[in-house]
């Protein structure tokens, strides 16, 4: 008896399995409930569709035809700008029109609408490839939405980077200048032959040349004054709008007066980012949440800055308009003085001086047109060409299951662990003696033998 006194049986695998079998219903219930919950969530989640396209954006841009090496922005700056363009209101506005036309072509008007929030733009790694995708519950809407957004983005660059058609304009103007120059030279020959006139005083020639230059300058000033008056009127209307109306007006109009201001462009970019953040926050919080209120306050400050910037542009434009008025008055006074001085020149000298001045004026016009044509050709050659290439066009929408298979598979395994933990917890709360190890620990003696449970047989 003493030889067995110090011996103490340890808990074995059998004891572990006994606990598991005693609480098997609890463990199985937890596992089955978890599996049922996962299957239910998987089955109740709606099936979403997505359509996407891949576009290659050319980053290099030559400064002019004499510098063949392209100029590059940083990759992060360029790609971030492109993603902002894809998600800008200018592209969305064009995409809505294209989407509506596509619905009309399929006789589906009024059944679907373009949703800007369904559009997503991503960059593939560190490449110049942009993926535009449109997701939703309707595969037809996804397909048409992706096509509309892709086409709107491409048309945005076509409109922005297309050079003006100047070749025909310069050819017609040069032909007209050469025709007029030939006519005035013919008129001079006829005048000299008819009048048998040889010379002209230097003063008369100078005054006629001055008159021609003043008339040309005055015509240019009047043209600039007319254009500036229209610009001032447009700016005055913008400056008189409220802050909210001004933001909406600038968002839907591609104004040259706005495009000249870098500050306005920066402010609009910041407002677009804040508006996007506000829409994201409203999907989670109400409009009384502190984050939403903070974004609203920032938008209010930007609207005030936008209003002040438009007022500053208007004041500057009005100052330029007054300078043109003063210049017109000065040229008009000089023209009247020159005309009075020409009145004293004899008729023959006056006629010959007028012919000479016209010939000189058309010669200068011809040379000026050649120079302007050359400058325009250089500007077109160095301007940014169409930079967006479609790698993969938008196709039919395919179903996308966003479930994480790995996490779903981990659910039953974690439920089994939780069930085992609860089983051993409840087992620890039960103080009855269930095995030899607990008996030895309770009595402080060694168990020499056990009598197995005898089951009755039928």
Tell me about this structure.
With 458 residues, this protein is α+β, with helices and mostly antiparallel strands. It has three domains: 2-45 and 406-443, no CATH class; 48-163 and 392-402, Alpha-Beta Plaits (2-Layer Sandwich); 167-382, no CATH class. 67% of the residues lie in helices and 7% in strands. The protein has 14 helices and five strands. It has helices at 13-22, 24-44, 75-86, 89-105, 139-161, 167-195, 202-239, 243-252, 256-259, 262-282, 290-342, 347-382, 405-429, 436-443; strands at 48-57, 119-123, 129-136, 388-392, 398-400. Strands 1, 2, 3, 4 and 5 form a five-stranded antiparallel β-sheet that branches. β2 (119-123) and β3 (129-136) form a beta hairpin. α8 crosses α11. The longest helix has 53 residues, at 290-342. It is elongated, with a radius of gyration of 42 Å. Mean pLDDT is 76; it is low at 1-9 and 62-68.
Mean pLDDT: 76
How many structural domains?
3
Q: Based on Cα principal axes, name the global outline.
A: elongated
Task: Indicate the low-confidence ranges by residue numbers.
Answer: 1-9, 62-68
Helix-strand string: HHEHHEEHHHHHHHHEEHH
Structural class: alpha+beta
Q: Helical content, roughly? A: 55-70%
Alpha-carbon distance between the two ends:
40 Å
The percent range for strand residues is: 5-15%
SS elements, strand count: 5
The biggest beta sheet, please? Answer: 5 strands, antiparallel
Number of helices, counting only DSSP H or I runs of 4 residues or more: 14
Rounded to an integer in angstroms, the radius of gyration calculated over CA atoms is 42 Å
